[in-house]
Amino acid sequence: MVRMYMVWVYIICGLYGLTSCTSAKHFSGVDKKWREIDKMFQDSFGRGDLHSGFALYDAETMEMLYGYQPNHRLLPASNTKILTCYAALEYLPENLHGLQYFKMDDSTYVRGMGDPGFMCDDEKEDVIMEFLEEQNHIQYVRGPSGLKRWGPGWSWDDYPYYYSAERAIWPIQCNLTSWNNDNALNHNFIFNYINSGGKGINRLEDENIYNVYSPDKGQISDRKIPFKWDEDLLLSVLKQKLGQNLLAGSVSEADWMVSKWNILPGSNRDSVVKKMMKVSDNFLAEQLLINISAGWGNMETGYEAIGRILDSEWSSWKGKIRWVDGSGLSRYNLMSPNFFCFVLGQLYQNHNNDGLFKVFPVVDLNKYDPAAVVDENSITVYAKTGSMSGVFCLSGYILTQGGHKYIFSFMNNNFIGSSTDIKRSMAQILSKIARH
Fold it and tell me: Sign of the CA dihedral 203, 204, 209, 215?
């Protein structure tokens, strides 16, 4: 009977083009619930215009329990931050690399390392600023020329939106300006802005000039807009904040050889990682990769960490996935559900006792499908979403009251319009799996 059922599974998979449809031995044939899940996938995700993939693993044994096109390469969007989370927890100390410095004669030479915390949160201690205020003569060493303001494959016309804050070797105030209802800039340094007759706020693409509609036209809701970062702007801000002129240049080869660079501990790593994952902060994700690369030295692009990780512990995945940035803004990224389960498994194995689940957002499946009626006391889903136009992904962990821990990755691409129906179908499947 079991053999006959599996024959029909293969026939159905062939008819639907689902050559990667996989039911593991625990849930095949005689198990009605998993036959129902097979049908749910075919009914909800089997249509030709929707590209979907799913993988489910036992978190303790890393045995694959179920798969639906689990090796399909798909756009991950912000699920890419799971990779950045892994990189940060594996390769960064408890405090990020704040900045590099050494002292020679009466001067302190400093250069940035990508710490995102400088002037970024008025409520938190700014260790970099405190250090700089204690120095008498500061000489700024320019950063790498290969560090681009955006990642590969980003949409250039997203430049005025908060989620596309520029990457930088020494960012200022999260590289964002804040505009409040009084039509005033809410930041510690001043840009040019013009009161115009237009509607809303916009910034010129290549200049820090903002057009703002006149106050009598209405009010501006609080809004964050990226600014164009460069080292001259950084030096201007430092001069304003420290009250001294900073000399900028490079350190000669001889000075490099005889001088020992020190690293000032910066922002708390876990706080930055948690915020990146909870609010899906693209800027923090990009800066974490820069910080890793800067700590290794010889940084040019800020993406050296990607190459090193793919060449070492993830070498078996080279050629099977494509990873190009830290945030997932790029449409060049291509990854599979099986790959995400692999990374989530490594995170679980290496950091399960370090508060790993506190890093991931808690997902309420009832918001995806009110009819699911999932009891949050019996099922908890810790997972990262990933969304952009035509993309919705969800990858993470499922914990049940019975003590089961699952790793899963659910990826969907190529749909037009709202993701509401897709989320509803995902919630129905995940809730059924969790109650198994």
Answer: negative
